[in-house]
C-alpha cells in the first residue's frame, strides 16, 4: 500500500488539479468534454423539469382537495388564543411599563391602541350589519353580496371610556389604563353553549405582595363577547369580519410596583390551562405604573 | 534428508580457542579446566556443553540448496558443469547471506548430571527474562477508544457540538433567559458521538477478544535437570545453560544444542517449510546453525517417533531464539491501512467536504441575508448534522462484523474487522506450500511394478485406491510394505478413520502404514501372523531397512527377507525382478525401465522408495536359525526387486478447485515456499498454480533442446524462481518478473525474500494476500495487505502476524473469504448509497428555510432520529443482500480506480434519488400545512412572523389566528410529517438499493428477509416516535394523522420506477453514456 501513501508535493497537486480543470489532450473540462457537459446538463434540466412538473402537479391536486371556506383540520386550534393591546414584550412576555408624569412613556402605548382601533371605525365597518341577537349568528347560506356571509359590526364606540373617543389617553394619564383584549378567530368556533364568553382580569397572586383585589371596568359591559359574532365563517365567507373586543380599564393599579395581571376568557369551550401555551384562553402581562 | 554434511570449521561441534570473557563469562581457570576435560575422550561427549553467544543477523533457510543439487546429481548423472559452478556459487551465497558472527564463548561448563543450580538459574532468569516471546506491542485500550471518539465524522460532530455551546454562551451573555435549545442540540450531538464511539469500540474489542481466547496456549512444561535432580518446570522458566530432556511428541521448549539423542526427528516445517521431518543427533554436521543436526529450535516439534529421547542444553531462550528473531522481524514490519479503511476515509472526506462546504456557503449566504450571526451558526450546525450520516460508521462496523461472523462459521476467523473486505479486493495471493496447499503429511502417490506406473489416491480420506491389485507382484509388494515397517498405530483408535489415526513412527513409514492399512486391512494382524525374526532399522549410511519374517503359510518354512530403501541402493542388491508375480532376471532393459520410472517419479517431486524381497532357502536357514543384525549372517544381495513406491506431501483435494476459482476471479496465485524447486513445481502443477499447458523457460529449453538463454522469455507463461536467483534480482527485475509471468513459483525462499516478494507485488498496485503457517512466513504475513495463517498447523508467530486465520487450514476457505469480501464491498456500497440519499432530503429543508423563509420543515433533533433511528437496521439489512451476479467471475477491484464511493454513487444518491425524496417529503409537509390552514404559497417568507414569539395572532389563509405555541406545535407536526415522508421514501430507497444493475424482481423481493425486518423496524420506530412519544414535547414529535403516512407513497413508487428504468438502460446499453453516468 506504499503507493497509496505517497505524499504528493503541493505543486504536483496543483498541476493535477489544473489538469483536471482543463485537459488539453482530451479536451476535457472538469472531467468531461464540452459536448459531454452539454448532454449531462440537458439530462439534468430535463430530469428536474419533469420532477418539478410532477411536484407542481401534486401541489395542484392538493389545492384542489382543499375546501376554500373551512380548513380540513382544526385539531391544533381547539381553543382560541388571546392577545392584548397595547402589546409591548419584555424578556419574558408582555411588559407594560410607563410613567404617568412622562407622557412620552405612554403616548406610544395609546398610539398602538388608536391604530389598532382604526379598524373598528364606523367607516371601516360599513359593510357589516348591526346585530342585536344574544345568540349565535348561524348562516348556512351565502346571503351577503358577492357570495359572502354577513358579519356583525363591532365599532370602537362600543368600548365607551376605552374607545379613545372620550378619553384620548385611554386612562393612562390618570393611572387607570385601558387594555384591549382580543380573542383569536377560529373558523366555526363556538365558544360556549349559551352564555357569552366573558373576560375576567385579576392580579396574579405574587408572594410578598398583599394586594387588594383588582377592580376592573369592562367595556362592553360585563366584559362579554356577544354570541352573535360567532361562529366565524372564514376569510372568504366573511371578508369584513372583525373580532369582537373587550376593553378592561384597571382602576386600582398600585403605582411604583410591578404587578402581574391575568385576563382569562371564561367560556365553556375556551380553555386556559394549557401548560405549554401562555396565550391560550388567557393573557398575562406585567404592569408597572410610575408616578 | 541425508548427506550434505560439511564437516569444516567445527564451530558447533568441537571446542574452541577461548574467546575473551563475555559479560557473563566465567573465570578463565574454569575454561581451561573445561578444555583439559575435553581432551579426555570420556568427556569429549560433554564438551559441547557450551554456552554459545552468537549474533544471527539474518536468517536463511537456504541450507538445503546444496544437498538438493547433490540429490539431483545422484539421480541424473548427466548434469553438467554449469551446475557444479552453480553449486559453488550457491555455497558462497549461502555464506554471504547467513552472515553469521558465531562467536562462541565458554561461559560455564557443567555436567549434564548436575544441571544448573536453582540459584544460578534464578539469576539467569532475572538477567535474561523468561523464555517466552515478547507479545507484539498492543495499543493501549484508552488510545483505541479515543481513536474511535475522534475518528471519521466524530470530529465534525464534536465541532458542531462545541459550536452549539459557544452559540449558547454568546446568547447567554447578551440575554440570560436565552433558550436552551442549542445546549440540548450540542449535548445530543456529543452523546451521539460518544455512543457511536463506544459502540464501534465494543465491536472492535469483541472481535479482538475472540482472537485473544484463541491464542491462549496451554502452558508448556519442560523436563529440566537442576540441582542434580529432574524437575518439571514451566518452559517459560528455562534459562540458558539448562539441561533439558525431550521425548517424542514434545514441543522443543527453547533453542537447544543436543548432547545425546536417539532416533529423533524434528518437524522444522514451521521454520523452514520442509514437510519432511529432519533427523537430529548429537553430531555436529554443518556450520549453518539451521542445518546442523545437533541443534533443535524453539517451537518446533519432536516427532512422535518410537523411543525418541534426547538431552540437550538450552543455548538461547525467548526472543533470542531463531523463532524469536523472526518474530521480531515480523513486528518490525509496519501495519498498513486496510483497503476498506482507505475507502471509508475517502468516503468520510467526500461527505465531510460536502457538509463543510455547503455549511460554510450557506453560512455566508445567511450572513449576507442579514441573519443574525448566531442564527447563521445554528444553520451551519444544522447543515452539518443533516449532511453527516451519524449512524453510518457504526453500521459499517456492524456489517463488517456480521460478515466476520459468517466467515468464522466457514472457518475463516478474522482478527481485524477491516480485513474482512481485504480478501475481496485481493489481486495476488502469495501462498505458502506446506500445510496450506498440501496436507503436510507424506502420502503414497505412485507405485511402479510390473513395469507400469500406478496412481494411488492422495485425497484426504485416501479410501479410493483404484489401481489394479490383481497382479502377483502387488501381493508381494504389499506384503513388503506392510512388514518392512516399524510404524504402529497408537492403540485404542479403532473407531477413528485410518487417515486420522495417530501413528508412532516417521512420516514415510506412517504413510506406508496407512496406505497398507487402507488396502490390506489390519496390518498389525498381518505382522503378527508374519512374526518378525530380526530387523535392521534405517540409517543414513546403508540407506535401507530390512527385516526377516516367518511366513504366515504354515507349510512354507522359509523365512521372508523384506527390504526397502533408496531405489538405487535396493536395485544394486537385486539380481532378479518380479514381473506379474514371476521372478525374471534383471537385465539391462529392465534396469533402464527402472531408471525411467525412477526419474519420472523423482521428477514429480516425490520421494521414491524401492522394495525388494527374498525367500531365504529353507535348507540353509532352518526354523531354528539364529539371525544376527550386527553380523548380518544372511544374504543381502541377489534379491528380487519388486517395485517402487513414491510418496509426496499431496495437495489438499480442495486446493485445485480453489486455485481455479481464484483464477477465474482474476486473482493471481503465486507459490512462495522454502521447499525445493522440484517439489514446489510439482505441487504447483498438481494444484494448478502452474496450469497444465504452460511451460517455464527451462521446460521450453528442454523440449526444444536448446540452451535456456536462447529461449524467448515471452513464450513462457510460468516461472520457477529460487531464492538464489531472487537474490541477484534488482527490484526492477522482480517487478518485470511479477508483471510478465502469470504463473510464478518461488522456491527456497528465506523469510526476507518472502517479504521482498510481497513488496514487489505491492509495487504492482496489487492487494496482496499471504498465506502461511510457519514462523518463517510471519514477516510476510505482517507485510501483506492481508495475512492468512493456518489455524491448526499454524505457529503462534504466524497467527499473531496474520489478519485472518483459517481454522480448518483449508486453502479453499480463502475463496470463501474472497467471495465474502467482494460481497461486503458491494453491500457496503449499497448501504452507503442508501444512507447518503436521505442527506439531501435532510439538507434541503434548511436551505429552503434560509433562502425562502418557510417555517422550518424538519428539526435537527428529528434528523438524528432518522439517522440513528429508522435508518439503522435497514442499512445493516443490506449487508445480508445476496450477490447480484457471479462476483467470482470478475476481476478484483483496482484499489485506486474502483472506489467504494465514486462520483456516480454520490451524484445519483444526492442529485437523483435524494432530490426526489426531498420533493416527496416537502409534499407531505405542504399537505399538513395546507390542511391546517396555511397554503403553500402563503408559507414563503413567513419565517420571521412565524418564528416570532411575540406574535400571537398570526393569520392563516382562512383568517384564523394562531398563537406562537399553536404555530410551534404545527411546526412539530410538520417535522413529523417530513420525517414520515423521508421514512416512507427510504423504504423505497432500501428496496431499490438491493441491486445495482439487476431488476429487483430478478434479485427477488423476499429473498433477503432481513430487508423486511429493516422495513418493519423503520415503520415501528416511526410509529413509536409519532404515537408513543408524540406527547413528549422535547422530542418535537406529534401524533400524525394516519393519512399523512401515505402522502409520500406515490413518490416512493416513483423512486422505484425511476431506478428500475435506470437499471434497465444499464443492462440494455452496457458501456453507453447512461451506463457510465448512472452505474455506481
From TrEMBL, chain B:
Biased composition (Gly residues): 1-12
TM spans (from-to): 150-170, 182-202, 347-367, 373-400, 905-928, 1011-1030, 1042-1058
InterPro entries for this protein: ATPase_P-typ_cation-transptr_C, ATPase_P-typ_cation-transptr_N, ATPase_P-typ_cyto_dom_N, ATPase_P-typ_P_site, ATPase_P-typ_TM_dom_sf, ATPase_P-typ_transduc_dom_A_sf, ATPase_P-type_domA, Cation_transp_ATPase_P-type
CDD domains on file: P-type_ATPase_Na-K_like
Domain of life: Eukaryota
CC annotations in GO: actin cytoskeleton; apical plasma membrane; cation-transporting ATPase complex; cytosol; plasma membrane protein complex
Membrane topology reported for the UniProt record: Multi-pass membrane protein
Keywords of the record: ATP-binding, Hydrogen ion transport, Ion transport, Magnesium, Membrane, Metal-binding, Nucleotide-binding, Phosphoprotein, Potassium, Potassium transport, Translocase, Transmembrane, Transmembrane helix, Transport
GO MF, any single term: metal ion binding
GO terms of biological process kind: intracellular potassium ion homeostasis; intracellular sodium ion homeostasis; potassium ion import across plasma membrane; sodium ion export across plasma membrane
Annotated segments matching region Disordered: 1-25
Main location: membrane
Subcellular localization, as worded in the UniProt entry: Cell membrane; Membrane
Tagged with keyword Glycoprotein: no
Domain Cation-transporting P-type ATPase N-terminal as annotated: residue spans: 92-169
Assigned protein family: Belongs to the cation transport ATPase (P-type) (TC 3.A.3) family. Type IIC subfamily.
Record protein name field: Sodium/potassium-transporting ATPase subunit alpha
Amino acid at each position: 500500500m506504499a503507493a497509496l501513501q505517497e505524499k504528493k508535493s503541493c505543486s504536483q497537486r496543483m498541476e493535477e488539479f489544473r489538469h483536471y480543470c482543463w485537459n488539453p489532450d482530451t479536451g476535457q473540462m472538469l472531467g468531461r468534454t464540452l459536448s459531454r457537459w452539454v448532454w449531462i446538463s440537458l439530462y439534468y434540466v430535463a430530469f428536474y423539469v419533469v420532477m418539478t412538473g410532477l411536484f407542481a402537479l401534486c401541489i395542484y391536486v392538493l389545492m384542489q382537495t382543499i375546501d376554500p371556506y373551512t380548513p380540513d383540520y382544526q385539531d391544533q386550534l381547539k381553543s382560541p388564543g388571546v392577545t392584548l393591546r397595547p402589546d409591548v414584550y419584555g424578556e419574558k412576555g408582555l411588559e407594560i411599563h410607563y410613567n404617568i408624569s412622562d407622557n412620552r412613556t405612554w403616548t406610544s402605548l395609546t398610539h398602538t391602541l388608536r391604530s389598532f382601533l382604526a379598524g373598528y371605525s364606523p367607516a371601516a365597518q360599513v359593510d357589516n350589519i348591526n346585530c342585536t341577537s344574544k345568540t349565535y349568528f348561524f348562516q348556512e347560506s351565502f346571503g351577503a353580496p358577492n357570495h359572502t356571509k354577513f358579519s356583525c359590526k363591532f365599532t370602537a364606540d362600543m368600548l365607551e371610556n376605552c374607545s379613545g373617543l372620550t378619553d384620548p389617553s385611554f386612562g393612562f394619564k390618570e393611572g387607570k389604563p385601558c387594555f384591549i383584549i382580543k380573542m383569536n378567530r377560529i373558523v366555526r368556533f363556538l365558544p360556549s353553549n349559551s352564555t357569552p364568553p366573558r373576560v375576567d382580569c385579576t392580579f396574579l397572586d405574587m408572594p410578598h405582595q398583599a394586594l387588594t383585589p383588582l377592580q376592573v371596568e369592562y367595556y362592553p359591559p360585563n366584559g362579554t363577547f356577544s354570541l352573535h359574532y360567532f361562529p366565524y365563517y372564514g376569510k372568504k365567507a366573511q371578508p369584513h369580519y372583525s373580532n369582537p373586543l373587550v376593553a378592561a380599564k384597571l382602576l386600582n393599579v398600585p403605582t411604583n410596583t410591578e404587578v402581574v395581571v391575568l385576563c382569562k376568557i371564561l367560556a365553556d369551550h375556551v380553555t386556559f390551562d394549557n401548560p405549554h401555551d401562555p396565550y391560550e384562553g388567557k393573557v398575562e402581562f406585567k404592569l408597572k405604573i410610575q408616578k | 534428508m541425508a548427506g550434505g554434511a560439511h564437516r569444516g570449521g567445527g564451530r558447533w561441534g568441537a571446542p574452541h580457542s577461548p574467546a575473551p570473557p563475555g559479560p557473563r563469562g566465567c573465570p578463565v581457570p574454569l575454561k581451561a579446566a573445561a578444555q583439559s576435560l575435553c581432551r579426555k575422550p570420556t568427556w569429549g561427549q560433554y564438551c559441547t556443553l557450551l554456552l554459545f553467544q552468537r549474533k544471527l543477523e539474518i536468517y536463511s533457510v537456504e541450507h538445503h540448496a546444496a544437498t538438493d543439487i547433490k540429490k539431483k546429481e545422484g539421480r541424473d548423472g548427466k548434469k553438467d558443469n554449469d551446475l557444479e559452478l552453480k553449486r559453488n556459487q550457491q555455497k558462497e551465497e549461502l555464506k554471504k547471506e547467513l552472515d553469521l558472527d558465531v562467536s562462541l564463548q565458554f561461559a560455564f561448563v557443567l555436567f549434564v548430571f548436575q544441571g544448573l543450580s536453582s540459584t544460578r538459574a534464578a539469576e539467569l532468569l532475572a538477567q535474561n527474562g523468561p523464555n517466552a516471546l515478547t507479545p507484539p506491542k498492543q495499543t493501549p485500550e484508552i488510545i483505541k477508544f479515543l481513536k474511535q471518539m475522534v475518528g471519521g465524522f466524530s470530529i465534525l460532530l464534536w465541532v458542531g457540538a462545541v459550536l452549539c455551546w459557544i452559540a449558547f454562551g454568546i446568547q447567554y451573555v447578551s440575554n440570560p433567559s436565552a433558550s436552551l435549545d442549542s445546549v440540548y442540540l450540542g449535548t445530543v450531538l456529543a452523546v451521539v458521538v460518544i455512543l457511536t464511539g463506544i459502540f464501534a469500540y465494543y465491536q472492535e474489542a469483541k472481535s479482538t477478544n475472540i482472537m485473544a481466547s484463541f491464542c491462549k496456549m496451554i502452558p508448556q512444561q519442560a523436563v529440566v535437570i537442576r540441582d542434580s535432580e529432574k524437575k518439571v518446570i514451566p518452559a517459560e522458566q528455562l534459562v540458558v545453560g539448562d539441561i533439558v530432556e525431550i521425548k517424542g511428541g514434545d514441543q522443543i521448549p527453547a533453542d537447544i544444542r543436543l548432547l545425546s539423542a536417539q532416533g529423533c526427528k524434528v518437524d522444522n516445517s514451521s521454520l523452514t517449510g520442509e514437510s519432511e521431518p529432519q533427523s537430529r543427533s548429537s553430531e555436529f554436521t554443518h556450520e549453518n546453525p539451521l542445518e546442523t543436526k545437533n541443534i533443535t529450535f524453539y517451537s518446533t516439534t519432536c516427532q512422535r517417533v518410537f523411543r525418541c529421547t534426547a538431552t540437550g542444553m538450552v543455548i538461547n531462550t525467548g526472543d533470542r531464539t531463531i523463532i524469536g528473531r523472526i518474530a521480531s522481524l515480523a513486528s518490525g514490519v509496519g501495519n498498513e491501512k486496510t483497503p476498506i479503511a482507505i475507502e471509508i476515509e475517502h468516503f468520510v472526506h467526500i461527505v465531510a467536504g460536502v457538509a463543510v462546504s455547503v455549511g460554510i456557503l450557506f453560512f455566508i449566504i445567511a450572513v449576507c441575508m442579514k441573519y443574525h450571526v448566531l442564527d447563521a451558526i445554528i444553520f451551519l450546525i444544522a447543515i452539518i448534522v443533516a449532511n453527516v450520516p451519524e449512524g453510518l460508521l457504526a453500521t459499517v462496523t456492524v456489517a463488517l462484523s456480521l460478515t466476520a461472523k459468517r466467515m468464522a462459521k466457514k472457518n475463516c476467523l478474522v482478527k481485524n474487522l477491516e480485513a474482512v473486505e481485504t480478501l475481496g479486493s485481493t489481486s495476488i495471493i502469495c501462498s505458502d506450500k506446506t500445510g496450506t496447499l498440501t496436507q503436510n503429511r507424506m502420502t503414497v502417490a505412485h507405485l511402479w511394478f510390473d513395469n507400469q506406473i500406478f496412481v494411488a489416491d492422495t485425497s484426504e480420506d485416501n479410501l479410493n485406491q483404484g489401481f489394479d491389485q490383481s497382479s502377483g507382484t502387488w501381493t508381494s509388494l504389499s506384503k513388503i510394505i506392510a512388514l518392512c515397517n516399524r510404524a504402529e498405530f497408537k492403540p485404542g483408535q479403532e473407531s477413528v478413520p485410518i487417515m486420522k489415526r495417530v501413528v508412532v513412527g516417521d512420516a514415510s513409514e506412517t504413510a506406508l502404514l496407512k496406505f497398507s492399512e487402507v488396502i490390506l486391512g489390519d496390518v498389525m494382524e498381518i505382522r503378527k501372523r508374519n512374526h518378525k525374526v530380526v530387523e535392521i532399522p534405517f540409517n543414513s549410511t546403508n540407506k535401507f531397512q530390512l527385516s526377516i519374517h516367518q511366513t504366515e503359510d504354515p507349510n512354507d518354512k522359509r523365512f521372508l527377507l523384506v527390504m526397502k530403501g533408496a531405489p538405487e541402493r535396493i536395485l544394486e542388491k537385486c539380481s532378479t525382478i518380479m514381473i506379474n508375480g514371476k521372478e525374471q532376471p534383471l537385465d539391462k532393459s529392465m534396469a533402464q525401465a527402472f531408471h525411467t520410472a525412477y526419474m519420472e517419479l523423482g521428477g514429480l517431486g516425490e520421494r521414491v522408495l524401492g522394495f525388494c524381497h527374498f525367500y531365504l532357502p529353507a535348507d540353509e536357514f532352518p526354523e531354528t536359525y539364529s539371525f544376527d543384525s550386527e553380523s548380518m549372517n544372511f544374504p543381502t544381495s541377489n534379491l528380487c526387486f519388486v517395485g517402487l513406491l513414491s510418496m509426496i506431501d499431496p495437495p489438499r483435494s480442495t486446493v485445485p478447485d480453489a486455485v481455479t476459482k481464484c483464477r477465474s476471479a482474476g486473482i493471481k496465485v503465486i507459490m512462495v515456499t522454502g521447499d525445493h524447486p522440484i517439489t514446489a513445481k510439482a505441487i504447483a502443477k498438481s494444484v494448478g498454480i502452474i496450469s497444465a499447458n504452460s511451460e517455464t523457460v527451462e521446460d521450453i529449453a528442454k523440449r526444444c533442446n536448446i540452451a535456456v538463454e536462447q529461449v524467448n522469455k515471452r513464450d513462457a507463461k510460468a516461472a520457477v524462481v529460487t531464492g538464489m536467483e531472487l537474490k541477484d534480482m534488482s527490484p526492477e527485475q522482480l517487478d518485470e518478473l511479477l508483471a510478465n509471468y502469470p504463473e510464478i513459483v518461488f522456491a527456497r525462499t528465506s523469510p526476507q525474500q518472502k517479504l521482498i516478494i510481497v513488496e514487489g507485488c505491492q509495487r504492482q498496485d496489487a492487494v496482496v494476500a499471504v498465506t502461511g503457517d510457519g514462523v518463517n512466513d510471519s514477516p510476510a504475513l505482517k507485510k501483506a495487505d492481508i495475512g492468512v495463517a493456518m489455524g491448526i498447523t499454524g505457529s503462534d508467530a504466524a497467527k499473531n502476524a496474520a489478519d485472518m486465520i483459517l481454522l480448518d487450514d483449508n486453502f479453499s476457505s480463502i475463496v470463501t473469504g474472497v467471495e465474502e469480501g467482494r460481497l461486503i464491498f458491494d453491500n457496503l456500497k449499497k448501504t452507503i448509497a442508501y444512507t447518503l440519499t436521505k442527506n439531501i432530503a435532510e439538507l434541503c429543508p434548511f436551505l429552503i428555510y434560509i433562502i425562502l423563509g418557510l417555517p422550518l420543515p424538519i428539526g435537527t433533533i428529528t434528523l438524528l432520529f432518522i439517522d440513528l433511528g429508522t435508518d439503522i437496521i435497514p442499512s445493516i439489512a443490506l449487508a445480508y443482500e445476496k450477490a447480484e451476479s457471479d462476483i467470482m467471475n470478475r476481476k478484483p477491484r483496482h484499489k485506486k480506480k474502483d472506489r467504494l464511493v465514486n462520483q456516480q454513487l454520490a451524484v445519483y444518491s444526492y442529485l437523483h434519488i435524494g432530490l426526489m425524496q426531498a420533493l416527496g417529503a416537502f409534499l407531505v409537509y405542504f399537505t399538513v400545512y395546507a390542511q391546517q390552514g396555511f397554503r403553500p404559497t402563503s408559507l414563503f417568507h413567513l419565517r420571521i412572523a412565524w418564528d416570532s414569539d411575540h406574535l400571537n395572532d398570526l393569520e392563516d389563509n382562512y383568517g384564523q389566528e394562531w398563537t406562537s405555541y399553536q404555530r410551534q406545535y404545527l411546526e412539530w407536526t410538520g417535522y413529523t410529517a417530513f420525517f414520515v415522508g423521508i421514512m416512507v421514501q427510504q423504504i423505497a430507497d432500501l428496496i431499490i438499493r438491493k441491486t445495482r444493475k439487476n431488476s429487483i424482481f430478478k434479485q427477488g423481493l423476499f429473498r433477503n428477509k432481513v430487508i423486511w425486518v429493516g422495513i418493519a423496524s423503520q415503520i415501528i420506530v416511526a410509529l413509536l416516535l409519532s404515537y408513543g412519544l408524540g406527547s413528549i414535547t422535547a422530542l418535537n414529535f406529534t401524533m400524525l394523522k394516519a393519512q399523512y403516512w401515505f402522502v409520500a407513497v406515490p413518490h416512493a413508487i416513483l423512486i422505484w420506477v425511476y431506478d428500475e428504468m435506470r437499471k434497465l438502460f444499464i443492462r440494455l446499453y452496457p458501456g453507453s453514456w447512461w451506463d457510465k453516468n448512472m452505474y455506481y
